[in-house]
Structures are given as structure tokens and as C-alpha cells.
Amino acid sequence: MKLQQVIINTDVLIIGGGCAGSMAAICIKDAAPNLNVCIMEKGHIKRSGSVTMGMDALNVAVIPGISTPEEYLETVKKKCWGIMDYFPNYTLAIKSFELLKTLESWGVFFPKNEDGNYNIMQVDTSGKFCVGMDEPDLKPIMEKKIREAKIDVLNKTMGTKLIVKNGKILGAVGLNINNGQVVCCKAKCVILANGSASRFGLPNTGYLYGTFDFPGNAGDGFALAYRAGAKITGMEFTLKYALVKDLNIPLIYIVLTRGGEVVNGSGEVIVDKNNLSIFLIVEALENRKGPLFLKTDHLSKEKIMEIENILFSTERPMQRRYWELKDIKFGRDLIELNLTEAQLCGGHGISGIVINEQSHTNIKGLFAAGDVSSVPMQHLTGAFVYGKIAGESAIEYCNNGNFPENHKDIHWEFDAELSHLGSLLNLTKNNTIQPTTFEYKLRRIINEYLLSPKNSSSLKKGLSLIYELREQLPYQVLAKNFHELSKVLEIGYILDCAQMSAISSLTRKESRWGCIHRRSDYPDTDDVNWLKHIDLQVGQTYPETDIYLREIQRGDGE
Amino acid sequence: MSSYIIEVSDECIGCGICVDLCPLNCLRMGEDNKPYLQYEECWYCGCCEIECPVSCLKMHFPFLIY
Question: Hey, which of A345, A425, A474, A479 has its CA 20 to 30 A from A125?
Fold first, then answer.
């Protein structure tokens, strides 16, 4: 079993073929057909990323006449407790409707009512920004466009290293997780779009892949960017959602916007469509006011049918079989809710690579889009909008940049990465621990030491255990084949994310965002000192970390 | 209730689409030219079942989930 090597050239390399990466590729080929575009995708482009099986709503859509960008900004600012920059989210808001129309022109289905209006739902206590979308084939629609545009796609290929010299991107290395081909891709610029750190905390079931967000994402992009010198922010925002217990599949918005209620064990209503807030549900569960249940027995048959039609057709259609297995019926039975595992995400939360409203990172020629980048609570809309923006920035960079040959630097970096990957796959070593066992232990430690209630002793203890595991990884874990090698690499990414999260949580000496960052040793929210971003960057020698506090960017007239 | 995650019937034509499209790359083709779950890393998304051109594959939920 040997790693094979291949060197390729492209103008724009996109790492991650989910919604953000696919959108970037399509837009580049559309606006600049002369540019070569290559996508590295860990899975298969047709069914990859967080919306593998489609999506039932666009969570951010500022529709003229219904809501305004200013209202949206106010809502997000409130949800982030002020930790957000004005321009990235403003840009998202003003481009969201145009994005919806683009998707619609591609054949993505947005149901309309009898008056011809979109199905607009209120899922925040203020403002209507969520538009119903009934599209199980979202990814296949994009994959068809990618095929028609003759964009090069390297399926089953994960990014393992960004090649950066003197603050400028030169390309990246990828590993084919099936055949062991190591690809050195020289590129004028790179768009990182490989998702969040979904495999971070351990789910209550103990099942490593039972996460609420797509478990193929292990913080790959956060780690690659961090190692290359990009700034990463908001890693203390250890986000848990409230979803169906054990199954971890989303349905709360769908049910509550159609009249369902969240009740406690005594039948008291905690949340309904009048105070719809996931935050309230999460806080109640964290504060031991559970168990909580989703109640639907008061809804009409028509409403139940409407709910079931949505739940069983898009996003996670297989759940129908789960309810049959459990003998649970909507309209009859209570459905227990529970907290999900913690994740780090720039789409649901605020964690990710620091970008501006042009998708630029602090590395020349490196752009980021989607869940890997920090545009707080951008959701799927952000992946599309910033995918397009990253594509536009990449075109501009390719057309205006200066790209001298850097063969020596690239080949040196490629050889070093080949040697690194080869050492992890070396079967002559005496390693005995399965990657799954090691990952379980790491994620158990994340649960035990890195999540709320946080305190200095616990976070420091967690950090020291993470450093220990980091030392042990190459000497303990056995990768018998390329698939297992990919798992060892992913453990390395989770370790980076855990380390960054512990450092950020230690730095933020206050409590903020309820149970997302509750410091028992600093119980109060301190806007005077901590209304700031915490950015991390790799120090002199990896994995040393430098910490920077950054002021909040305010809008005109704020 | 099933103790296994992937159930394949005799109608399987061995096309390998399910193996290729699995978002977590956890399926493989067996020596009998039928898919099986090589790695217990299934997200129960059901992509394998939905994409099967002859509807011969059934996905069950992992034991730890139900």
C-alpha cells in the first residue's frame, strides 16, 4: 500500500464541493470561461456537503417589501450578542434576494401561495427572513451545471495542506481517500469551502457520526487555514442546538411555524410560534428544566400532513422510517427534544476563518466561503452568496495578479507533505489504537473540559490533555489503509479545533451567549472589555497560537 | 429493527452508484459484486437508497441511534 503522487495545474482551486464551493465554481466559469477551475471534494460532488439530501428553507432571505437589511442586521446582532462585523452580514442581506432568484432560475423550487407569494416564515422573535424551499435535488441541480461547464472535479479527495509562501498562496495538497493518490495542485488562488467542525463534541448517543450537521466535516478547513497562517475567530462559540433526541435531525422550525409547541413534562408551553427561539429551548435544557417535548396533537390533520410532507421529502427524508421504528406518530405522540453535541460553525454560529465582505482572508490569494468562514449565522444563504463573492474575488485576483513560477517552494512543500502522510500510514510501526477509538476519547475530552459551564481550571486541564493526545496521535493510532489515513488526518483537524476552542474560551474572561460560553469563574457579560472578536493565528512554530483581540466593525451611522 | 445498516436484495445489479455517491465513503463493493457497509460511519442520510437505480437497497438506522 503506497501513496501515489501527481502534480496538476489550475487557475482556481476550490477545496470543498458543497453549496459554497459549487456556487463559486459555477460563477467563475460563467463569468470567466477562460479560467481553469478545479474542485477537490472529499465525497462525491453530486451528494456532498451539509445539504446532501436537499433543504427545506433558505434561512436568510431579505425580500423587498417584507423585510429590510437593517432589520436583518439588528436580528443577527442580537443573536450574536454584538459579536459580528457589519459589512459581511450587510452584504449577505442585500444579496440574498438576488441569490434566491438565481436559484429559482436554475429550477430550485420555492413554493408559492395562492397569491403568488413565497412561503415566508418567522423563525426569530423579530423579522421574517426564512423562505420555504422544497428542493431534494439541490446538489444534483448544481452538479449538472458543474458537469455542463466542464469543471474539473477530483472526487474522494480531501485537502491536507495549503501551500503558502511569504503570505501568498501557491496551491494545495490533496489526498484521494480511496486510491491513495496525493495530488499537488498548483494554483493561482484557492477558495476554501470545506465546511464546519461538525465532528467536535460527542453526541449523547456516543455515536461518532450521529451529529446534527454533516459529520464528513471535521474542521478540515479551520485547521488547514490555521496551519497556513490565516486568522480564525469565534472558536469559543461552542454551539449546541436543540433537536430530536438521539436522532439529531432538524424539524423544530418546520413544526413550530405550523402551530406546534414545545412543552415541558408538566405540559407547560415553553416555546410556540409567538416566541419562537431555539435559544430559549437550549437554555431550558441546559438549565435542567427538561425533558422537553414537541407537541402536535392539537393540530389539524391538514397541518400534520403538511408537516409530514416536508419532513419526509427533503433534507432528511429517511426520518419517516425512524418514526415508524419508534412507533411515534405526528399529531398523536410527544417527541422528545434534546441538546445536540457542540459544534463550531460559521454558518450556524460565529466560528471560522476571518473574511471580509469580498471573501478575502489575510493570506493573499486565499478566499473562504460557507460554513468554514465567519459570517455569523449566514446559514445556507451565506454559503451561496459568499461562494459567488469568492468566485468574483478569485477572477479579479487571477486577472490582476503576478504569478511567478515557484517550482522549488511548491515541490519542497509537496515532498514534506508526502513524507508526513507516508509516516502516518507506515504499517511497520507498532501502533495499535483504532482511529475511531482515539477520536472517541478526544471528543469525550472536549465534552468534559471544553464546554459550558467553563472555567479556567477545566479549560487548562482540557488543553493539556489535547496537547498529550497531539503527541500520542502519530505513535498510537494505526491507519491500515487510505480511508483510515483520512480519519487520522481528521483527528488532527479536530485536535486543532479543540486547541483553538480551549484557548479562545480561556481568553474570553466573561460569560456570553448563554450556555454557549458560560464561565462559572466570570459569570457576568462584560461589554466594556469583551465586546470584541478573539482571533487566533498560528505562532512561530505550529501548534503555538497567537491571540489577537479585534474591535467590532460598525456600520455607517452606528 | 435491524442489526445492520445496509440491506441489499437480490435485484442489485452491482452498478456501484451507492458506493460512489455515499457522502461519507463508508460503502464498498463485496466479492459478490454487491455493496456492503465497510465502515460504521453512516449518517443515515439515505443517499444510497434514494440513488439506487433499481431500488434494491434499504437503509436502517444505526443501533446507537434508536
Answer: A345
- The CATH class given to the B6-59 domain equals alpha beta
| Residues of A engaging B, defined by a Cβ cutoff of 8 Å | 42-44, 46-49, 52-53, 155-156, 177-178, 205-211, 214-216, 246-247, 316-318, 321-322, 325-326, 436, 483
Q: Mean pLDDT for each 10-residue chunk of chain A (558 residues)? A: 94 98 98 98 96 90 94 94 97 97 96 92 83 92 97 98 96 97 98 98 96 97 98 98 92 90 95 87 92 97 93 88 94 96 97 98 98 97 98 98 86 96 86 96 98 98 98 94 97 98 98 97 98 97 96 83
Cis previous bond, A140, omega within 30: no
What pTM was computed for the model? Answer: 0.97
Q: Name the residue ranges covered by the structural domains of chain B.
A: 6-59
CATH no. of A242-339: 3.90.700.10
**Residues of chain B with C-beta less than 8 angstroms from the C-beta of A318:** 44-46, 49, 59, 61
The residue-averaged pLDDT of B48-60 equals: 96
**What 8-state DSSP symbol labels residue A245?**
T
Beta carbons within 8 Å of A388's beta carbon, 6+ residues apart: A23, A24, A27, A95, A99
Give ipTM to 2 decimals. 0.96
- How many whole angstroms separate alpha carbon A73 and alpha carbon A75? 5
* Domain spans, chain A: 242-339, 409-551
Is residue A307 within a helix (H) or strand (E), and if so which, with residue range? helix A301-311
Query: Cβ B25–A48 below 8 Å, yes or no?
Result: no
Question: In chain B, whose CA is at the least distance from the CA of A316?
Answer: B45
Q: How far is B66 from B61, CA to CA, in rounded Å?
A: 7
Nearest CA in chain B to A314: B45
